[in-house]
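New to this. Explain these tokens.
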Amino acid sequence: MTKQSMTALLEQMTLEEKIFQLMQLTPNFLSEDDANLTGPLAWMGVTENMVNNAGSVLSAVGAKETIALQKKYMENSRLGIPLLLMADIIHGYRTIFPVTLAIGSTWDLELAEKSAAIAAKESAVTGIHVTFAPMVDLVRDPRWGRVMESTGEDPYLNSEYARAFVRGFQGDDLAGDMDRVAACVKHFAAYGAAEGGRDYNTVNMSERQLRESYLPAYKAALDEGCEMVMTAFNTVDGIPATGNKWLMRNLLRDEWGFDGMLISDWGAVGEMIPHGVAADGKEAALKAIEAGVDMEMMTSHYANHLKELVEAGEVDVKLIDESVLRILKLKDKLGLFENPYRAASEEREKEVLLSPDHRAAAREIAAKSFVLLKNEQQALPLRSGQKLALIGPFAESGDILGPWSIWGKQEETVQLHAGLSAHKAADIVAVAKGSDIDTVTEEQLQEAVAAASQADVIVLALGESSEMSGEAGSRGDIRLPEAQLELIRKLKPLGKPIVVVLFNGRPLDLHGVIEEADALLEVWFPGTEGGNAIADVLFGDVNPSGRLTMSFPYSVGQVPVYYNNYNTGRPLTPQNANERYVSKYLDMPNAPLLPFGYGLSYTSFSYSEATLSTDVMNAGDTLRVSVDVTNSGASAGEEVVQLYVRDLAGEVVLPLKELKGFRKLAIQPGETRTVTFEITEEQLRYYHADLQLKSDAGEFHVFVGPNSRDAEAKSFRLTK
């Protein structure tokens, strides 16, 4: 349909029909169960007429349900306007990939795009039209449970992943490609900066910091063509995002030119009341529509109050018209007016969901997301002939999909014991739980010791349950539970090599684990093929190549701790480490335990000294930075070569290092690869005190290395 036909359709709609299009409900509201009339419908003040004209449904399950919902809806639609079906497809639909933080740790944009494309295909065939992803919130506080949905602490890397995920979900032809879904970037804005790492909490920062660090990834997703934006639960400059006119109209609409659909997060319009910026639902509806929120998720303040506000002259009907038109345009772009069922198919659903190809991709991506954090005495890879004891609460657990694996099934998941047992080199002589996630008995400990005594190597599977991270999964103490630390302490005196396999959704304080382990493999929540992927890495079929995209703190007392921090007027240096009056802790180091970009391999890599094409760069020129990387070990491996830049003197304080580029290279033993990065003046710009984005003439340092910590500086000067 054309824009003119959309406008013509809008003109045929009554005011009530327009307002109800701005409502999103869950499928139970559209069920034929009369109990809804005295249950959920009554509780929210929702009438049958509202339900019959609601613009969208959230989280319908399977093609059978989505087809039935759409059929019933279309039968009641006076103007033949189809229903828009949305869901949280975060890191897989039925084939579950590693959590997003783990996908970030691959440092592989093609794999990220592939995971999103498969998730889109599986969800599209069930009848879903829109996914609430990617989540691109920059995160510096691992106490926040939703770090598992993010790709980490760096604005550049998050932006690159945002683009990759949008490409994967939407493809090149959203209208014509039935295997794609519309993407919705979230949470706008700065949700990842919640104070104290406590979910839904206050966010408070300067506009300059917001623009410098937190906004780039949202903008990158929109530049890639992302169709939708979701509001955040938090405040921005003292105003909840869902009612923040500056954020949504001035910045998102006017400055960035976004004319797509804007949806609130679950109940966020109503949450302006407890936030204290709206006295009641009527005022909440007024503030949200004025801010430009097109669709209200799971509260009914628009439906109950907008008509009254229009009739009283407090809301211009043009605000409602522009929101409805955006919703209609998205439905049209998805081809729903011609085919309201789009790709939904019960028959094809059986072929697509959890197909062999999808499982193979999940296995590959999981293996490449694992980060080897420690490997002493060549404890890994495991060797054929070694007798293994598999111990720990995750030895046989299916709880390895992660918090947002809504449609994944544990019974379809390859847990660790099954994955190891299927490997030809495995000789598992004993299996013991050893402890539960957060409790342990003496009997469990004795069983673990007995199992370990039979083996040459202890494979110890530890971690967080999925309920310990994700939304509303904030933790003040980010160590492993004491029960699991007690298990390690019990096994250590046996003198057997201990290989820890760590399942979790956030960076942890690893004290009590990393000192006791001979090897430590971070596997996150690895998804459907987790057990097979772990076996691939433990036995050396896949050389670990993951690198951290969030720093692991030495202690929660450092948090927030991140690599791209500012200097102070009294910085801690190796030369003044014994001085008191410098910026430091008395009881712990300033630096994280494990830095951004860190990860080990079964081989080793050496770097030559970086060379610059010039040490004086004119504003219109391109500076080339080259380095030779040699695989100096005995096995093939992949290295992530990272480029960082520092502006030594700015108008405002600037980070000590900023990631500006990376390359992931497969290198054979003895082979040397030359990596050349290009730096332009545009990459050296930053937000000045007046919020102008520009660069300054002056001296810069450039770093090339395997992580944010281990890289030597080279200098160049920018001239204007």
